[in-house]
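Field log, afternoon session.

UNIT: design team B
ACTIVITY: writing a sequence onto a fixed backbone
BACKBONE:
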Protein backbone atom coordinates (compact mmCIF):
# COMPACT_ATOMS: atom_id res chain seq x y z
CA UNK A 1 0.00 0.00 0.00
CA UNK A 2 2.44 2.65 1.12
CA UNK A 3 5.41 3.50 -1.06
CA UNK A 4 8.69 1.74 -0.40
CA UNK A 5 12.12 3.38 -0.37
CA UNK A 6 12.76 1.96 -3.81
CA UNK A 7 9.51 3.31 -5.24
CA UNK A 8 10.24 6.75 -3.84
CA UNK A 9 13.75 6.61 -5.31
CA UNK A 10 12.26 5.57 -8.66
CA UNK A 11 9.89 8.54 -8.64
CA UNK A 12 12.73 10.99 -7.97
CA UNK A 13 14.77 9.41 -10.72
CA UNK A 14 11.92 9.83 -13.19
CA UNK A 15 11.46 13.42 -12.04
CA UNK A 16 15.12 14.03 -12.83
CA UNK A 17 14.71 12.42 -16.24
CA UNK A 18 11.65 14.51 -17.06
CA UNK A 19 13.24 17.73 -15.86
CA UNK A 20 16.19 16.94 -18.06
CA UNK A 21 14.01 16.32 -21.10
CA UNK A 22 12.25 19.58 -20.38
CA UNK A 23 15.65 21.28 -20.40
CA UNK A 24 15.56 22.40 -16.78
CA UNK A 25 18.56 23.77 -14.89
CA UNK A 26 21.13 20.98 -14.56
CA UNK A 27 21.62 21.62 -10.83
CA UNK A 28 17.95 21.02 -10.26
CA UNK A 29 18.11 17.83 -12.32
CA UNK A 30 21.11 16.67 -10.32
CA UNK A 31 19.49 17.39 -6.97
CA UNK A 32 16.74 14.88 -7.80
CA UNK A 33 19.16 12.38 -9.25
CA UNK A 34 21.48 12.47 -6.23
CA UNK A 35 18.57 12.26 -3.81
CA UNK A 36 17.29 9.23 -5.70
CA UNK A 37 20.62 7.45 -5.49
CA UNK A 38 21.06 8.36 -1.87
CA UNK A 39 17.59 7.12 -0.90
CA UNK A 40 18.20 3.88 -2.76
CA UNK A 41 21.17 3.26 -0.52
CA UNK A 42 19.38 4.00 2.77
CA UNK A 43 19.07 0.73 4.71
CA UNK A 44 16.09 1.72 6.87
CA UNK A 45 12.47 2.46 6.10
CA UNK A 46 12.02 6.16 5.26
CA UNK A 47 8.91 6.24 7.40
CA UNK A 48 10.92 5.30 10.48
CA UNK A 49 13.62 7.84 9.68
CA UNK A 50 11.01 10.53 9.20
CA UNK A 51 9.49 9.90 12.60
CA UNK A 52 12.85 9.75 14.39
CA UNK A 53 15.92 11.72 13.42
CA UNK A 54 14.40 13.40 10.38
CA UNK A 55 14.78 12.93 6.67
CA UNK A 56 17.29 15.75 6.16
CA UNK A 57 19.91 13.55 7.88
CA UNK A 58 20.05 11.54 4.69
CA UNK A 59 22.74 12.89 2.40
CA UNK A 60 21.49 14.92 -0.55
CA UNK A 61 18.08 15.24 1.11
CA UNK A 62 17.41 18.89 1.83
CA UNK A 63 14.18 20.59 2.87
CA UNK A 64 12.58 20.45 -0.57
CA UNK A 65 13.25 16.78 -1.12
CA UNK A 66 12.27 15.95 2.47
CA UNK A 67 8.88 17.60 2.11
CA UNK A 68 8.34 15.69 -1.11
CA UNK A 69 9.17 12.43 0.67
CA UNK A 70 6.70 13.39 3.40
CA UNK A 71 4.07 13.98 0.76
CA UNK A 72 4.66 10.55 -0.77
CA UNK A 73 4.59 8.83 2.62
CA UNK A 74 1.30 10.52 3.37
CA UNK A 75 -0.52 10.40 0.03
CA UNK A 76 1.27 7.65 -1.88
CA UNK A 77 1.96 10.03 -4.71
CA UNK A 78 3.83 13.18 -5.61
CA UNK A 79 1.93 16.11 -7.05
CA UNK A 80 5.12 17.47 -8.63
CA UNK A 81 5.70 14.19 -10.47
CA UNK A 82 2.07 13.96 -11.58
CA UNK A 83 2.36 17.46 -13.00
CA UNK A 84 5.54 16.59 -14.86
CA UNK A 85 3.87 13.51 -16.31
CA UNK A 86 1.03 15.57 -17.68
CA UNK A 87 3.58 17.77 -19.41
CA UNK A 88 6.01 15.13 -20.62
CA UNK A 89 4.79 11.74 -21.85
CA UNK A 90 6.28 8.96 -19.74
CA UNK A 91 7.32 7.15 -22.91
CA UNK A 92 9.88 9.90 -23.49
CA UNK A 93 11.75 8.75 -20.41
CA UNK A 94 12.05 5.28 -21.89
CA UNK A 95 13.17 6.83 -25.17
CA UNK A 96 15.80 8.91 -23.45
CA UNK A 97 17.30 5.76 -21.90
CA UNK A 98 17.90 4.19 -25.28
CA UNK A 99 21.56 4.08 -26.02
CA UNK A 100 22.31 6.90 -28.47
CA UNK A 101 19.29 9.05 -27.63
CA UNK A 102 19.47 11.11 -24.43
CA UNK A 103 17.15 13.92 -23.28
CA UNK A 104 17.75 16.42 -26.10
CA UNK A 105 17.00 13.97 -28.85
CA UNK A 106 13.99 12.59 -27.01
CA UNK A 107 12.63 16.14 -26.92
CA UNK A 108 13.47 16.66 -30.58
CA UNK A 109 11.55 13.54 -31.65
CA UNK A 110 8.59 14.61 -29.54
CA UNK A 111 8.59 18.17 -30.88
CA UNK A 112 9.17 17.34 -34.53
CA UNK A 113 7.52 13.95 -35.02
CA UNK A 114 5.11 13.69 -32.09
CA UNK A 115 6.92 10.53 -30.94
CA UNK A 116 6.04 9.62 -27.37
CA UNK A 117 6.86 5.93 -27.03
CA UNK A 118 9.56 3.44 -27.98
CA UNK A 119 7.37 1.59 -30.52
CA UNK A 120 6.57 4.92 -32.21
CA UNK A 121 10.26 5.74 -32.32
CA UNK A 122 11.06 2.37 -33.82
CA UNK A 123 8.43 2.78 -36.51
CA UNK A 124 9.79 6.21 -37.40
CA UNK A 125 13.36 4.90 -37.53
CA UNK A 126 12.41 1.97 -39.75
CA UNK A 127 10.61 4.41 -42.04
CA UNK A 128 13.76 6.55 -42.23
CA UNK A 129 12.12 9.59 -40.65
CA UNK A 130 14.70 10.15 -37.93
CA UNK A 131 17.56 10.51 -40.38
CA UNK A 132 15.92 13.60 -41.87
CA UNK A 133 15.87 15.53 -38.60
CA UNK A 134 18.40 18.27 -37.86
CA UNK A 135 21.60 16.86 -36.36
CA UNK A 136 20.60 13.33 -37.27
CA UNK A 137 21.60 11.03 -40.11
CA UNK A 138 21.35 7.47 -41.34
CA UNK A 139 24.12 6.40 -38.96
CA UNK A 140 22.59 7.86 -35.82
CA UNK A 141 19.25 6.43 -36.89
CA UNK A 142 20.76 2.95 -37.12
CA UNK A 143 22.42 3.45 -33.74
CA UNK A 144 19.00 4.15 -32.26
CA UNK A 145 17.56 1.00 -33.80
CA UNK A 146 20.41 -0.97 -32.25
CA UNK A 147 19.77 0.78 -28.96
CA UNK A 148 16.11 -0.20 -29.02
CA UNK A 149 17.21 -3.78 -29.50
CA UNK A 150 19.44 -3.66 -26.44
CA UNK A 151 16.77 -2.00 -24.33
CA UNK A 152 14.17 -4.53 -25.31
CA UNK A 153 15.93 -7.48 -23.69
CA UNK A 154 14.31 -6.87 -20.33
CA UNK A 155 10.59 -6.88 -21.13
CA UNK A 156 8.05 -9.57 -20.32
CA UNK A 157 4.48 -9.42 -21.61
CA UNK A 158 3.58 -6.72 -24.10
CA UNK A 159 0.46 -4.58 -23.96
CA UNK A 160 -1.96 -5.41 -26.76
CA UNK A 161 -1.88 -1.77 -27.89
CA UNK A 162 1.78 -2.21 -28.82
CA UNK A 163 1.62 -5.84 -29.96
CA UNK A 164 -1.40 -5.70 -32.26
CA UNK A 165 -0.22 -3.02 -34.72
CA UNK A 166 3.19 -4.71 -34.93
CA UNK A 167 1.61 -8.13 -35.50
CA UNK A 168 -0.79 -6.80 -38.10
CA UNK A 169 2.07 -5.22 -40.07
CA UNK A 170 3.92 -8.53 -40.19
CA UNK A 171 0.80 -10.43 -41.22
CA UNK A 172 0.13 -7.92 -44.01
CA UNK A 173 3.74 -8.14 -45.16
CA UNK A 174 3.58 -11.95 -45.39
CA UNK A 175 0.21 -11.89 -47.11
CA UNK A 176 1.76 -9.79 -49.88
CA UNK A 177 3.77 -12.85 -50.94
CA UNK A 178 2.18 -14.75 -53.84
CA UNK A 179 2.71 -18.06 -52.02
CA UNK A 180 0.57 -16.99 -49.05
CA UNK A 181 -3.02 -18.17 -49.58
CA UNK A 182 -4.43 -16.93 -46.33
CA UNK A 183 -3.21 -15.81 -42.95
CA UNK A 184 -4.36 -14.92 -39.47
CA UNK A 185 -3.18 -13.92 -36.05
CA UNK A 186 -3.67 -16.71 -33.51
CA UNK A 187 -2.84 -17.18 -29.81
CA UNK A 188 -3.61 -14.65 -27.11
CA UNK A 189 -3.53 -11.74 -29.54
CA UNK A 190 -6.47 -13.21 -31.46
CA UNK A 191 -8.31 -13.84 -28.23
CA UNK A 192 -7.73 -10.17 -27.40
CA UNK A 193 -5.96 -10.54 -24.09
CA UNK A 194 -4.78 -7.29 -22.50
CA UNK A 195 -1.15 -8.43 -22.61
CA UNK A 196 0.58 -10.73 -25.05
CA UNK A 197 3.38 -13.19 -24.25
CA UNK A 198 4.31 -13.76 -27.87
CA UNK A 199 2.59 -13.20 -31.20
CA UNK A 200 1.43 -16.27 -33.10
CA UNK A 201 0.84 -15.99 -36.85
CA UNK A 202 -0.48 -18.70 -39.17
CA UNK A 203 -0.11 -18.72 -42.94
CA UNK A 204 -1.73 -21.22 -45.29
CA UNK A 205 0.56 -22.06 -48.17
CA UNK A 206 1.84 -24.98 -50.21
CA UNK A 207 5.29 -23.40 -50.41
CA UNK A 208 6.59 -22.37 -46.99
CA UNK A 209 10.22 -21.51 -47.74
CA UNK A 210 9.72 -18.02 -49.24
CA UNK A 211 7.40 -17.13 -46.36
CA UNK A 212 9.90 -18.25 -43.74
CA UNK A 213 12.63 -16.36 -45.55
CA UNK A 214 10.67 -13.12 -45.79
CA UNK A 215 9.74 -13.34 -42.13
CA UNK A 216 13.25 -13.82 -40.70
CA UNK A 217 14.71 -11.13 -42.97
CA UNK A 218 12.33 -8.35 -41.94
CA UNK A 219 14.06 -5.05 -41.10
CA UNK A 220 12.79 -4.91 -37.55
CA UNK A 221 14.11 -8.32 -36.52
CA UNK A 222 16.66 -8.15 -33.71
CA UNK A 223 17.40 -11.87 -33.52
CA UNK A 224 16.28 -15.02 -35.28
CA UNK A 225 15.37 -17.51 -32.58
CA UNK A 226 14.51 -20.33 -34.96
CA UNK A 227 14.31 -20.80 -38.73
CA UNK A 228 12.71 -24.10 -39.73
CA UNK A 229 10.94 -25.38 -42.86
CA UNK A 230 7.42 -24.46 -41.62
CA UNK A 231 7.99 -22.69 -38.30
CA UNK A 232 10.20 -19.73 -37.45
CA UNK A 233 10.53 -17.42 -34.46
CA UNK A 234 12.10 -14.02 -34.16
CA UNK A 235 12.59 -11.32 -31.60
CA UNK A 236 11.74 -7.86 -32.89
CA UNK A 237 13.74 -4.76 -32.04
CA UNK A 238 11.05 -3.89 -29.52
CA UNK A 239 11.65 -7.17 -27.70
CA UNK A 240 8.38 -8.69 -28.87
CA UNK A 241 8.68 -12.34 -29.90
CA UNK A 242 6.79 -13.56 -32.98
CA UNK A 243 6.18 -17.13 -34.17
CA UNK A 244 5.05 -17.88 -37.71
CA UNK A 245 3.76 -21.28 -38.79
CA UNK A 246 2.92 -22.36 -42.33
CA UNK A 247 0.43 -25.14 -42.98
CA UNK A 248 -1.75 -26.64 -45.68
CA UNK A 249 -4.89 -24.79 -46.47
CA UNK A 250 -6.92 -27.98 -46.10
CA UNK A 251 -6.01 -28.06 -42.39
CA UNK A 252 -6.62 -24.37 -41.71
CA UNK A 253 -9.61 -24.87 -39.41
CA UNK A 254 -7.99 -27.32 -36.99
CA UNK A 255 -4.69 -25.42 -36.99
CA UNK A 256 -6.21 -22.02 -36.40
CA UNK A 257 -8.35 -23.44 -33.64
CA UNK A 258 -5.41 -25.19 -32.00
CA UNK A 259 -3.05 -22.23 -32.10
CA UNK A 260 -5.68 -19.72 -31.03
CA UNK A 261 -6.15 -21.56 -27.75
CA UNK A 262 -6.60 -21.02 -25.00
CA UNK A 263 -5.09 -24.24 -23.78
CA UNK A 264 -8.07 -24.74 -21.47
CA UNK A 265 -10.50 -24.23 -24.35
CA UNK A 266 -8.52 -26.70 -26.47
CA UNK A 267 -8.64 -29.34 -23.75
CA UNK A 268 -12.44 -29.12 -23.65
CA UNK A 269 -12.60 -29.27 -27.44
CA UNK A 270 -10.55 -32.45 -27.41
CA UNK A 271 -12.84 -34.01 -24.79
CA UNK A 272 -15.86 -33.28 -26.90
CA UNK A 273 -14.14 -34.68 -29.97
CA UNK A 274 -13.36 -37.87 -28.06
CA UNK A 275 -16.99 -38.20 -26.97
CA UNK A 276 -17.81 -38.16 -30.66
CA UNK A 277 -15.16 -40.75 -31.54
CA UNK A 278 -12.35 -38.49 -32.71
CA UNK A 279 -8.92 -37.48 -31.57
CA UNK A 280 -8.43 -33.78 -32.28
CA UNK A 281 -5.11 -32.08 -32.90
CA UNK A 282 -3.85 -29.22 -35.06
CA UNK A 283 -3.83 -31.43 -38.16
CA UNK A 284 -7.14 -33.22 -38.21
CA UNK A 285 -9.94 -35.10 -36.52
CA UNK A 286 -8.82 -38.75 -36.43
CA UNK A 287 -11.32 -41.54 -35.73
CA UNK A 288 -10.52 -43.53 -32.55
CA UNK A 289 -11.54 -46.98 -31.30
CA UNK A 290 -13.18 -47.78 -27.95
CA UNK A 291 -9.81 -47.49 -26.20
CA UNK A 292 -9.35 -44.05 -27.68
CA UNK A 293 -6.56 -45.23 -29.97
CA UNK A 294 -6.40 -43.72 -33.40
CA UNK A 295 -7.62 -46.14 -36.07
CA UNK A 296 -4.81 -45.73 -38.58
CA UNK A 297 -6.78 -47.27 -41.43
CA UNK A 298 -9.72 -44.88 -40.95
CA UNK A 299 -9.98 -41.71 -42.99
CA UNK A 300 -9.03 -38.53 -41.15
CA UNK A 301 -11.34 -35.56 -41.35
CA UNK A 302 -9.70 -32.28 -42.34
CA UNK A 303 -11.42 -28.99 -41.55
CA UNK A 304 -10.70 -26.09 -43.83
CA UNK A 305 -12.45 -23.64 -41.53
CA UNK A 306 -12.99 -23.27 -37.81
CA UNK A 307 -16.71 -23.06 -38.48
CA UNK A 308 -16.59 -26.55 -40.01
CA UNK A 309 -14.70 -27.88 -36.98
CA UNK A 310 -17.13 -26.46 -34.44
CA UNK A 311 -20.06 -27.74 -36.50
CA UNK A 312 -18.49 -31.24 -36.64
CA UNK A 313 -18.37 -31.23 -32.85
CA UNK A 314 -21.98 -30.13 -32.56
CA UNK A 315 -21.00 -26.72 -31.24
CA UNK A 316 -21.92 -23.18 -32.17
CA UNK A 317 -18.95 -21.24 -33.53
CA UNK A 318 -17.16 -19.71 -30.54
CA UNK A 319 -15.72 -16.21 -31.08
CA UNK A 320 -11.99 -16.17 -30.15
CA UNK A 321 -12.51 -13.64 -27.35
CA UNK A 322 -14.63 -16.19 -25.47
CA UNK A 323 -12.19 -19.09 -25.71
CA UNK A 324 -11.02 -19.12 -22.11
CA UNK A 325 -13.01 -22.07 -20.79
CA UNK A 326 -15.26 -19.79 -18.82
CA UNK A 327 -18.55 -21.32 -19.86
CA UNK A 328 -18.31 -20.83 -23.61
CA UNK A 329 -18.16 -24.54 -24.51
CA UNK A 330 -21.24 -25.31 -22.46
CA UNK A 331 -23.07 -22.32 -23.95
CA UNK A 332 -22.03 -23.32 -27.47
CA UNK A 333 -23.34 -26.81 -26.85
CA UNK A 334 -26.68 -25.45 -25.69
CA UNK A 335 -26.81 -23.04 -28.61
CA UNK A 336 -26.81 -20.15 -26.16
CA UNK A 337 -23.73 -18.13 -27.01
CA UNK A 338 -24.29 -14.37 -26.83
CA UNK A 339 -24.31 -12.21 -29.94
CA UNK A 340 -21.29 -10.16 -28.96
CA UNK A 341 -21.15 -6.42 -29.48
CA UNK A 342 -19.26 -5.29 -32.61
CA UNK A 343 -17.68 -2.04 -33.72
CA UNK A 344 -20.59 -1.37 -36.08
CA UNK A 345 -22.91 -1.14 -33.06
CA UNK A 346 -21.12 1.91 -31.66
CA UNK A 347 -22.89 5.21 -32.36
CA UNK A 348 -21.16 7.55 -29.95
CA UNK A 349 -18.10 8.31 -27.86
CA UNK A 350 -18.95 9.67 -24.43
CA UNK A 351 -15.49 10.51 -23.09
CA UNK A 352 -12.84 12.71 -24.69
CA UNK A 353 -10.56 15.62 -23.90
CA UNK A 354 -9.64 18.83 -25.73
CA UNK A 355 -7.15 21.66 -25.48
CA UNK A 356 -9.36 23.06 -22.72
CA UNK A 357 -7.60 20.62 -20.36
CA UNK A 358 -4.90 18.12 -21.35
CA UNK A 359 -6.06 17.17 -24.85
CA UNK A 360 -4.13 17.97 -28.02
CA UNK A 361 -7.00 19.07 -30.28
CA UNK A 362 -9.83 21.58 -30.13
CA UNK A 363 -13.52 20.85 -29.72
CA UNK A 364 -14.07 21.53 -33.40
CA UNK A 365 -11.20 19.26 -34.45
CA UNK A 366 -12.48 16.44 -32.24
CA UNK A 367 -15.98 16.90 -33.66
CA UNK A 368 -14.77 16.70 -37.26
CA UNK A 369 -12.73 13.61 -36.37
CA UNK A 370 -15.76 11.96 -34.75
CA UNK A 371 -17.83 12.70 -37.84
CA UNK A 372 -15.15 11.12 -40.02
CA UNK A 373 -15.40 8.03 -37.86
CA UNK A 374 -19.14 7.82 -38.29
CA UNK A 375 -20.16 8.80 -34.76
CA UNK A 376 -23.65 10.22 -34.45
CA UNK A 377 -23.11 11.93 -31.13
CA UNK A 378 -20.27 12.69 -28.74
CA UNK A 379 -19.57 14.26 -25.38
CA UNK A 380 -16.75 16.66 -24.58
CA UNK A 381 -15.46 15.76 -21.12
CA UNK A 382 -12.41 17.66 -20.00
CA UNK A 383 -10.83 17.36 -16.58
CA UNK A 384 -12.19 19.15 -13.52
CA UNK A 385 -10.59 21.81 -11.37
CA UNK A 386 -8.85 19.74 -8.69
CA UNK A 387 -6.82 17.98 -11.37
CA UNK A 388 -4.45 20.91 -11.69
CA UNK A 389 -1.86 18.61 -13.17
CA UNK A 390 -4.11 18.09 -16.20
CA UNK A 391 -5.07 21.75 -16.48
CA UNK A 392 -8.51 21.00 -15.00
CA UNK A 393 -11.31 23.51 -15.55
CA UNK A 394 -12.29 26.12 -13.01
CA UNK A 395 -16.04 26.65 -12.73
CA UNK A 396 -15.77 29.74 -14.94
CA UNK A 397 -13.83 27.89 -17.63
CA UNK A 398 -16.14 24.88 -17.42
CA UNK A 399 -19.21 27.01 -18.06
CA UNK A 400 -17.45 28.95 -20.81
CA UNK A 401 -16.50 25.69 -22.45
CA UNK A 402 -20.07 24.37 -22.23
CA UNK A 403 -21.18 27.50 -24.02
CA UNK A 404 -18.62 26.95 -26.75
CA UNK A 405 -19.65 23.31 -27.10
CA UNK A 406 -23.27 24.34 -27.59
CA UNK A 407 -22.31 26.96 -30.12
CA UNK A 408 -20.24 24.51 -32.14
CA UNK A 409 -22.98 21.93 -31.84
CA UNK A 410 -25.43 24.42 -33.35
CA UNK A 411 -23.02 25.13 -36.20
CA UNK A 412 -22.60 21.42 -36.91
CA UNK A 413 -26.32 21.01 -37.53
CA UNK A 414 -27.21 17.40 -38.32
CA UNK A 415 -23.63 16.32 -38.95
CA UNK A 416 -23.17 15.28 -35.32
CA UNK A 417 -24.66 16.02 -31.90
CA UNK A 418 -22.18 17.33 -29.35
CA UNK A 419 -23.02 17.30 -25.67
CA UNK A 420 -21.33 19.39 -23.01
CA UNK A 421 -19.90 17.27 -20.25
CA UNK A 422 -17.02 16.95 -17.87
CA UNK A 423 -14.78 14.27 -16.40
CA UNK A 424 -15.08 15.28 -12.79
CA UNK A 425 -12.58 14.11 -10.23
CA UNK A 426 -13.84 12.12 -7.28
CA UNK A 427 -11.60 13.77 -4.76
CA UNK A 428 -9.47 11.81 -2.31
CA UNK A 429 -11.88 12.69 0.51
CA UNK A 430 -14.82 11.33 -1.52
CA UNK A 431 -16.29 14.73 -2.38
CA UNK A 432 -17.27 15.65 -5.93
CA UNK A 433 -15.13 18.33 -7.54
CA UNK A 434 -18.06 20.63 -8.46
CA UNK A 435 -21.24 21.54 -6.56
CA UNK A 436 -24.62 20.30 -7.77
CA UNK A 437 -25.73 23.67 -9.11
CA UNK A 438 -22.83 23.56 -11.56
CA UNK A 439 -23.29 19.94 -12.57
CA UNK A 440 -26.93 20.52 -13.36
CA UNK A 441 -25.87 22.90 -16.14
CA UNK A 442 -24.10 20.12 -18.02
CA UNK A 443 -25.55 17.49 -20.34
CA UNK A 444 -23.44 14.57 -19.16
CA UNK A 445 -21.19 14.07 -16.15
CA UNK A 446 -18.44 11.48 -15.76
CA UNK A 447 -16.92 10.97 -12.34
CA UNK A 448 -13.50 9.32 -12.12
CA UNK A 449 -10.85 8.37 -9.61
CA UNK A 450 -7.46 9.92 -10.37
CA UNK A 451 -5.84 10.33 -6.97
CA UNK A 452 -5.66 8.56 -3.65
CA UNK A 453 -5.70 5.28 -5.55
CA UNK A 454 -3.84 3.45 -2.83
CA UNK A 455 -6.58 3.99 -0.24
CA UNK A 456 -8.15 1.11 1.64
CA UNK A 457 -11.10 -0.79 0.23
CA UNK A 458 -13.69 0.92 2.45
CA UNK A 459 -12.52 4.38 1.40
CA UNK A 460 -12.34 3.61 -2.31
CA UNK A 461 -15.74 1.94 -2.20
CA UNK A 462 -17.27 4.89 -0.38
CA UNK A 463 -15.85 7.31 -2.94
CA UNK A 464 -17.26 5.30 -5.84
CA UNK A 465 -20.62 4.99 -4.10
CA UNK A 466 -20.73 8.74 -3.43
CA UNK A 467 -20.28 9.36 -7.12
CA UNK A 468 -22.74 6.69 -8.26
CA UNK A 469 -25.44 7.98 -5.91
CA UNK A 470 -24.99 11.58 -6.94
CA UNK A 471 -28.02 12.28 -9.14
CA UNK A 472 -25.92 14.44 -11.48
CA UNK A 473 -23.32 11.79 -12.18
CA UNK A 474 -24.17 9.76 -15.28
CA UNK A 475 -21.10 7.57 -15.64
CA UNK A 476 -18.06 6.36 -13.72
CA UNK A 477 -14.95 6.67 -15.93
CA UNK A 478 -12.34 3.87 -15.93
CA UNK A 479 -13.82 2.54 -12.66
CA UNK A 480 -10.84 0.59 -11.33
CA UNK A 481 -8.21 3.14 -12.50
CA UNK A 482 -5.80 0.39 -13.49
CA UNK A 483 -3.08 1.25 -15.99
CA UNK A 484 -0.65 -1.02 -17.78
CA UNK A 485 2.00 -1.94 -17.02
CA UNK A 486 2.35 -0.85 -13.43
CA UNK A 487 -0.74 0.65 -11.87
CA UNK A 488 -2.88 -1.94 -10.17
CA UNK A 489 -6.64 -1.64 -10.05
CA UNK A 490 -7.98 0.07 -6.93
CA UNK A 491 -9.24 -2.18 -4.19
CA UNK A 492 -13.02 -1.76 -4.08
CA UNK A 493 -16.00 -3.84 -3.03
CA UNK A 494 -17.25 -4.46 -6.56
CA UNK A 495 -20.39 -6.23 -5.40
CA UNK A 496 -21.46 -3.07 -3.67
CA UNK A 497 -20.35 -0.84 -6.54
CA UNK A 498 -22.27 -2.88 -9.12
CA UNK A 499 -25.37 -3.00 -6.92
CA UNK A 500 -25.33 0.77 -6.53
CA UNK A 501 -24.73 1.37 -10.23
CA UNK A 502 -27.69 -0.87 -11.02
CA UNK A 503 -29.92 0.86 -8.47
CA UNK A 504 -29.06 4.37 -9.66
CA UNK A 505 -28.82 3.47 -13.34
CA UNK A 506 -25.31 4.91 -13.43
CA UNK A 507 -23.16 3.80 -16.37
CA UNK A 508 -19.88 2.05 -15.72
CA UNK A 509 -17.35 2.71 -18.44
CA UNK A 510 -15.30 0.25 -20.42
CA UNK A 511 -12.38 2.51 -21.22
CA UNK A 512 -11.00 1.50 -24.63
CA UNK A 513 -7.49 2.84 -24.19
CA UNK A 514 -5.28 -0.28 -24.34
CA UNK A 515 -3.34 1.00 -21.35
CA UNK A 516 -6.56 0.93 -19.30
CA UNK A 517 -9.14 -1.59 -20.62
CA UNK A 518 -11.16 -0.79 -17.54
CA UNK A 519 -13.61 -2.33 -16.54
CA UNK A 520 -11.65 -5.48 -17.12
CA UNK A 521 -13.50 -8.32 -18.90
CA UNK A 522 -14.38 -10.30 -15.78
CA UNK A 523 -15.93 -7.24 -14.13
CA UNK A 524 -17.69 -6.16 -17.31
CA UNK A 525 -19.26 -9.59 -17.46
CA UNK A 526 -20.45 -9.39 -13.85
CA UNK A 527 -21.76 -5.88 -14.46
CA UNK A 528 -23.85 -6.80 -17.48
CA UNK A 529 -25.12 -9.94 -15.71
CA UNK A 530 -26.40 -7.69 -12.94
CA UNK A 531 -28.06 -5.24 -15.29
CA UNK A 532 -25.58 -2.39 -14.88
CA UNK A 533 -25.53 -0.09 -17.92
CA UNK A 534 -22.18 0.02 -19.71
CA UNK A 535 -20.56 2.34 -22.28
CA UNK A 536 -17.39 1.88 -24.31
CA UNK A 537 -15.39 5.08 -24.82
CA UNK A 538 -11.96 6.07 -26.04
CA UNK A 539 -11.07 8.76 -23.47
CA UNK A 540 -9.25 10.34 -26.42
CA UNK A 541 -6.66 12.99 -25.61
CA UNK A 542 -5.96 13.52 -29.31
CA UNK A 543 -7.61 12.61 -32.59
CA UNK A 544 -5.65 9.40 -33.15
CA UNK A 545 -6.94 8.03 -29.83
CA UNK A 546 -10.46 7.96 -31.28
CA UNK A 547 -9.25 4.93 -33.24
CA UNK A 548 -8.65 2.96 -30.06
CA UNK A 549 -12.33 2.03 -29.90
CA UNK A 550 -11.73 -1.54 -31.22
CA UNK A 551 -9.65 -2.37 -28.15
CA UNK A 552 -12.62 -1.47 -25.98
CA UNK A 553 -14.87 -3.63 -28.12
CA UNK A 554 -12.52 -6.59 -27.78
CA UNK A 555 -12.38 -6.09 -24.04
CA UNK A 556 -16.18 -5.92 -23.84
CA UNK A 557 -16.49 -9.03 -25.99
CA UNK A 558 -14.17 -10.87 -23.63
CA UNK A 559 -16.74 -9.96 -20.96
CA UNK A 560 -19.57 -11.51 -23.01
CA UNK A 561 -21.07 -8.06 -23.54
CA UNK A 562 -23.78 -7.57 -26.15
CA UNK A 563 -24.91 -4.38 -27.87
CA UNK A 564 -27.99 -4.23 -25.68
CA UNK A 565 -25.81 -3.78 -22.59
CA UNK A 566 -24.00 -0.75 -23.97
CA UNK A 567 -25.57 2.70 -23.91
CA UNK A 568 -23.50 4.28 -26.68
CA UNK A 569 -25.06 1.87 -29.14
CA UNK A 570 -28.32 3.74 -28.62
CA UNK A 571 -29.71 6.28 -31.05
CA UNK A 572 -29.20 9.88 -30.00
CA UNK A 573 -32.92 10.31 -29.34
CA UNK A 574 -33.01 7.36 -27.01
CA UNK A 575 -29.88 8.50 -25.22
CA UNK A 576 -31.22 12.04 -24.88
CA UNK A 577 -34.48 10.74 -23.47
CA UNK A 578 -32.56 8.68 -20.91
CA UNK A 579 -30.61 11.76 -19.86
CA UNK A 580 -33.73 13.91 -19.67
CA UNK A 581 -35.29 11.34 -17.40
CA UNK A 582 -32.39 11.54 -14.96
CA UNK A 583 -31.76 15.24 -14.65
P1 LIG B 1 0.72 -15.87 -24.59
O1 LIG B 1 1.59 -16.04 -25.77
O2 LIG B 1 1.38 -16.22 -23.31
O3 LIG B 1 0.10 -14.52 -24.50
O4 LIG B 1 -0.51 -16.90 -24.70
P2 LIG B 1 -0.93 -17.85 -25.93
O5 LIG B 1 -2.30 -18.34 -25.61
O6 LIG B 1 -0.75 -17.14 -27.21
O7 LIG B 1 0.05 -19.08 -25.77
P3 LIG B 1 1.21 -19.65 -26.71
O8 LIG B 1 1.81 -18.61 -27.55
O9 LIG B 1 2.11 -20.39 -25.80
O10 LIG B 1 0.48 -20.72 -27.61
C1 LIG B 1 -0.45 -20.32 -28.59
C2 LIG B 1 -1.60 -21.27 -28.58
O11 LIG B 1 -1.16 -22.57 -29.02
C3 LIG B 1 -2.19 -21.51 -27.22
O12 LIG B 1 -3.17 -20.57 -26.90
C4 LIG B 1 -2.78 -22.88 -27.37
C5 LIG B 1 -1.87 -23.55 -28.34
N1 LIG B 1 -0.94 -24.43 -27.65
C6 LIG B 1 0.32 -24.18 -27.31
N2 LIG B 1 0.86 -25.24 -26.69
C7 LIG B 1 -0.11 -26.16 -26.64
C8 LIG B 1 -0.20 -27.49 -26.13
O13 LIG B 1 0.74 -28.04 -25.56
N3 LIG B 1 -1.39 -28.13 -26.28
C9 LIG B 1 -2.45 -27.56 -26.90
N4 LIG B 1 -3.59 -28.21 -27.03
N5 LIG B 1 -2.41 -26.33 -27.37
C10 LIG B 1 -1.25 -25.64 -27.25
CA1 LIG C 1 1.26 -16.35 -27.98
CA1 LIG D 1 3.68 -18.76 -29.34
ZN1 LIG E 1 -10.43 11.02 -19.24
Amino acid sequence: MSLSNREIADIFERCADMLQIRGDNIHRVLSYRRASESIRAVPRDLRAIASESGLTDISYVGKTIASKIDEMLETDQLEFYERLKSEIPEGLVDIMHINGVGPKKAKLFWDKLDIASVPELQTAAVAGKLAELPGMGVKSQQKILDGIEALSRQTGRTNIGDALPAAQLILDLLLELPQAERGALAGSIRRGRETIGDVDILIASADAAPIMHRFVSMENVARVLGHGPTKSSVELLTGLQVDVRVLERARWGTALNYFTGSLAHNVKMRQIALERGFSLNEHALSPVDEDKNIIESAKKILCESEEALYARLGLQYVPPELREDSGEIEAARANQLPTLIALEDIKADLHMHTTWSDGKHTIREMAEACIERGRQYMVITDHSRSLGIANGLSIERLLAQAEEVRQINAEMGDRIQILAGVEMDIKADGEMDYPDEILTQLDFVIASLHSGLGQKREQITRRLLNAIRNPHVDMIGHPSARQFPNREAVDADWDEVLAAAKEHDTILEINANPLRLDLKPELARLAKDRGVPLAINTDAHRISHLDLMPYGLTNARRGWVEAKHVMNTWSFDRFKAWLANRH
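LOG NOTE: Residues 351, 353, 423, 477, 539 surround zinc ion (ligand 4) (CB under 6 Å).
NEXT ACTIVITY: expression trials, pending approval
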